[in-house]
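The instructor's notes for this session suggest beginning with a concrete chain rather than abstract definitions. Hand out the sequence below and ask the class to guess, before any prediction is shown, which regions might be ordered.
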Amino acid sequence: MTSPQPDFTLLPDLASRRLGGTVMYATDELFADKENLIKPGPPTFTPGEYGPKGKVYDGWETRRHREPKHDHAVVRLGAPGIVRGVIVDTANFRGNYPPQVSVEAVSVVDYPSPEELAALGWHTLVEKSDARGDTANRYPVSDNHRWTHLRLSIYPDGGVARFRAHGEVVPYPAFLAGTVDLAATENGGQVVGCSDAFYSSAANLLMPGQPTGMADGWENARRRDGGHDYVLVRLAAAGLVRQLEIDTSCFVGNAPDFVRVLGADERSTRMAGEPDPTSAAAWQELLPRTRVQPDTRHRFLVHSLQPVTHVRLEAYPDGGMGRLRVYGEIVPEALARLRERYLAAQPR
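After discussion, reveal the predicted structure:
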């Protein structure tokens, strides 16, 4: 009996505009702009909204073509990494969706132009495959290389609302020397556990930039049981924590009263998988239970002598936060392993 495949949508969207992704080029975008492909939110639809070129769609839509011509769009990933699966979402495109799609990838250094990228040899991640209209078409990827750009091709034309490329961030190791945000998604940090995310995802805590609203943070439901909520974060690598930043910006009436931050080193606890958030023995206190204020960016110095691979942010009793930053230095042996992984993931 084969084990079920992991859900790749639980991994970060490497192409997201929130991580700095961009749609560099499209062969055509007469009806709807290519930039809509990587917008972070779900596509919207207003039945009676029409413009000079016809129905207004929240997506990328090209004019009609005839074979063998087809359209494509080139996306520079906001966070280069290993792609585990892509989603070609044709939401609201019912009579004008592409019947087939494919996805290719390339890995480059620096910042080449679309013309320079077009001259390179691209690697196929998703062979030419059938797609359905008004559907989030999912395509798993079995490739362990690090990519920086993706090319979505649609056959022969049509509309795509959103394009997602979920995977594992593989950052350039030279940028991880010195003091860095160990929890940042763009550096390889990832939320791996959460007690509750009723209103908005805990993964927002690790996004770049300042929160723009409550939907751009982590917000849980109101607790009535006397307990508290938490988020478990696997750091980019084992590191010594020097500073914490807990930002409740935009949470005016529903921030926590208190917070606490704990750290654990999965290497020393010798656990299989993530540290148990309920096991007190696995954790050291980085920030004791501390009162926080609404709509405030809090910064705390940490004097930790032991490296950690995970942190647990606790909210008492509940409430929302916009960002979590965990600044520190990656220990030498962990940084060496990141270099090895980076080199092993480079396409030949």
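Then share the key points. The mean pLDDT is 92. The domain at 8-169 is CATH 2.60.120.260 (Jelly Rolls).
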